[in-house]
Amino acid sequence: MFESQQIPDGSSTALPRVLHTPRSRALLSESWAQADEAKRRERAGDDLQLPYEAYAAGEPCRACGRALLGEPALGTDEEGLALIDADNAQFRAEHAACSMGVWRLENNRVEHCHLCCPFPPLSPAQRDELRQLLYPPSLRVDRSATWRVKLTCQHVETLAAHSPRYVEPTVQCTECAVIRGVVKAVRIDDQAKDGDDGRDIESLQLGYQRLTDEQWSWIKHIVHTEEGPRRGRPRTDIRTIVDAALFKTRTGITWRELPAEFGSWQTALRRHNQLIASSQWDEITRTLAERDLP
């Protein structure tokens, strides 16, 4: 599940604009999805998912033939349960290569493979309940959004007509032609320009436009810059530092994800901390807020 980082706008109901997930978790989701896809290709043409009516009537799992509902054929006495446990142990050994473990239903000791055996279907009542949980009335406004996602392979895809609050953990990469894990998702909606294929996710401005000359004139007197020659690497322009800090604040990214156009993220972080320590940052943000910074 992605961790949501919202653009501060004074509203507790603001939709997420930047979603992150650790690379290790994205790679794990990727491996699971690829294994599942391989299994689906292997059994292409076989409809293994039971309809609810067949499941409710007691039809066994179509993948392994083992019971889903009802009394097990081996009985429920002590001897029968021991035989079921032995049968489960053999089943787990046969599916050890699946590496995804087993599942079983409540009040049924018979085990099934997470990779090979599809889960039982939901009942109509369960589907309605799940729909209410996932899409309560408060979330039924603006139910679609456009996301730009960065994958574990570093390629970028655009997802249209998706949920405004959630992005699937894996996506089919059009360049690699395989399923990849999503490490970052940026909600762009109508901000993408026509003809922009968006190959670099860091080029998205996420609703933040760099300071105009007029806006800079409001705050440039607040920051102190060094005059005269200076040894070593040229100092990053203070206006760029302020822009970088505003971009980071508005988009919710981490300092390490700061686009290269703002220079070194370490320098931006250090200079930003200096502005905070000197109370200059508070004055900058207050001045811009009073001037109605978009």
Describe this structure in words.
The chain has 294 residues and is α+β, with helices and mostly antiparallel strands. It folds into three domains: 3-31 and 138-203, no CATH class; 50-120, no CATH class; 213-290, no CATH class. Helix content is 33%, strand content 13%. The strands form two sheets. Strands 1, 2, 5, 6, 7 and 8 form a six-stranded antiparallel β-sheet that branches. It has a two-stranded antiparallel sheet with strand order 3-4. The radius of gyration is 27 Å and the shape is elongated.
Features:
13% strand, two-stranded antiparallel sheet, 294 residues, single chain, alpha+beta, 3 domains, 8 strands, disordered N terminus
